[in-house]
Design a protein that fits this description.
Elements lengths: L1 H10 L5 H17 L7 E7 L3 E2 L8 E2 L3 E7 L7 E8 L4 E7 L8 E4 L4
Antiparallel strand pairs: 1-4, 2-3, 4-5, 5-6, 6-7
Length: 114
């Protein structure tokens, strides 16, 4: 096990914990959405507490800090997935699919198998 951990740690040299988490979340979402292509663009936005999931007055707001993550497989809006999520700190995330899911219902997925 120590060899695997050492190899894994060395694979991530030069990346922050935040960058590694974002990559893991994107990979989990790619799998969850059934997307066959890997993202070529990504954007990350940190949200303070009580931020609306959607930019509308009827949108639910999150009572905790969250992250809005968007990534594109082809550089077009049609090929872009946008989610707002919170890490559950147990290997899973709870996220809202934006803007295609109304009413807003959270989805929870496991980021990796343990």
């Amino acid at each position: 096990m120590q060899t695997f951990v050492s190899q894994q740690a060395s694979s991530f040299l030069g990346y922050s914990d935040e960058q590694i988490e974002n990559a893991r979340v994107i990979e989990a979402l790619v799998h969850s959405y059934g997307t066959r292509q890997q993202p070529i663009e990504r954007a990350v936005h940190k949200n303070p507490e009580h931020t609306a999931v959607f930019p509308y007055t009827v949108s639910v707001s999150m009572d905790y800090e969250s992250i809005t993550l968007s990534f594109s497989t082809d550089g077009t809006m049609a090929g872009t997935i946008i989610v707002t999520y919170q890490a559950n700190h147990d290997g899973a995330i709870t996220f809202y699919k934006n803007p295609n899911q109304c009413p807003c219902q959270p989805t929870t997925i496991k980021m990796w198998r343990g």
